[in-house]
Amino acid sequence: MKLNYIILAGAATFIAACSASHDNHDHESENHDHAAEAAAHGHDHDHEAEAVHADEIIFSKAQAEAFGLEVMPVTPGKFHQVIKVSGQVLAAQGDETTQVAPVAGVVTFGKTAVVEGANVRKGEPLLSISSKNLNDGDPVLKARFAYEAAKKEYDRMAALVKDKIVTEKDYNAARLNYETAKVAYEAVAGQYTAQGQNVPAAMTGFVKSRLVNEGDYVQVGQPLVTLSQNNRLMLRADVSASYYPALPTIRTANFRTPYDNRLYQLDNLNGRFLSYGKSTDNTSFYLPVLFDFDNKGTVIPGSYVEVFLISSPMENVLRIPHSALTEEEGAYFVYIRLDEEGYRKQEVTLGVSDGNDVQVLAGLQPGDEVVTRGAYQVRLASHSSVIPEGHSHSH
């Protein structure tokens, strides 16, 4: 009996020892699994953090200040429909004149340099026309002789009509002949010199074009020179007839010149809408839209330009300046500031443009801070592997 008790006690002790050993093994396995899981979670978190910042471009505050970096928050606002066409800058009505020959003769230029672009003052002699050696004789001398003869006849008739020696009809005919000869002579006599008939400048401005050369023979009424004041100019935009329904909504425009790639806004040049064409013809399928504006001395009349016609307004539009855009293989990108030294490249889909700003259809959200000046420098930084020290990735 005693022997059986001893055997049972030993068995119980062995079972308890085995259970404790199994519990310790399970606990160690569980701890090992927890540690492995924690390590895996930590590894995944690092990968997530790296993924979040993988596309971040580092551009230090010092670099931003050095390059004059500017950032603008994107907010919905008012914009407008735009019709982009080609056009031409022309002289405004009354701002240009073409002078013609008052008499027939040979052209002689004096001291004034009559060349394109030369400045002239009103009344300043441009050239002279001499008729001395022509078969028909000098027209100024002929006009003077005709005037003097008509005056003598008129004076004689005036004395005779009082005594009823000549009829009233003859007297009136003599007076008409005299007044006609006087007008003809005075029209040329005031500018007559030893060199011939002077042609003075009709306005203060500049020589737009010279149409004759030294020694040319000209007829009465033949164009000699075109003068322009260049103070007021006209913008003509050629619009396809398909845009005809939108033409009544156009009231202003912007245009870009090819020689300096500068954008001009008519609103800043005292611009004024004049009219638009109502029909086309066989020579052109385009409708003209006309404006005039003040020239501040930088726009060249006659130049062909790119025109942005400003049409109907649009509300709640996201827009950015063209300076914010960079282009790569036909796609457009902007750079969004994430924090003080972090930026991200973002592709955008664009809408209409007025030459200065452009509508953004997709790629940006209200509140995004877009680089508007220095985008090219940020783009260069995106290709650099050098990351400034001390940058924090906490956002």
Report on the structure:
The protein has 395 residues and is of the alpha+beta class. The protein is built from 5 helices and 24 strands. It has a 7-stranded antiparallel β-sheet with strand order 15-14-18-3-13-17-16, with no helix packed on it. Strands 1, 19, 20, 21, 22 and 23 form a 6-stranded antiparallel β-sheet that branches. The chain has a 5-stranded antiparallel β-sheet with strand order 8-9-7-5-11, with no helix packed on it. A hairpin with a 6-residue loop joins strand 14 (252-256) and strand 15. The protein starts with a helix and ends in a 13-residue tail after the last helix.
State the order of secondary-structure elements, H for helix, E for strand: HEHEEEEEEHHEEEEEEEEEEEEEEEEEH
- By secondary-structure content and strand pairing, the structural class works out as alpha+beta
Q: Estimate the helix proportion, in percent.
A: 25-40%
Question: Any idea what the shape is?
Answer: elongated
The gist of it:
Helices cover 28% and strands 36% of the residues. With 395 residues, the chain is of the alpha+beta class.
Q: Which key terms come to mind for this protein?
A:
395 residues; alpha+beta; 7-stranded antiparallel beta sheet; 6-stranded antiparallel beta sheet; 5 helices; 28% helix; 36% strand
Topology:
Elements: H1 2-53, E1 56-58, H2 61-66, E2 70-73, E3 77-91, E4 96-100, E5 105-109, E6 119-120, E7 125-130, H3 139-162, H4 168-189, E8 192-193, E9 196-200, E10 205-210, E11 217-218, E12 223-228, E13 232-240, E14 252-256, E15 263-265, E16 272-276, E17 286-294, E18 304-317, E19 319-321, E20 326-328, E21 331-337, E22 342-353, E23 357-362, E24 369-373, H5 375-382
Antiparallel strand pairs: 1-22, 2-24, 3-13, 3-18, 4-12, 5-7, 5-11, 6-10, 7-9, 8-9, 10-12, 13-17, 14-15, 14-18, 16-17, 19-23, 20-21, 21-22, 22-23
Helix pairs in contact: 3-4
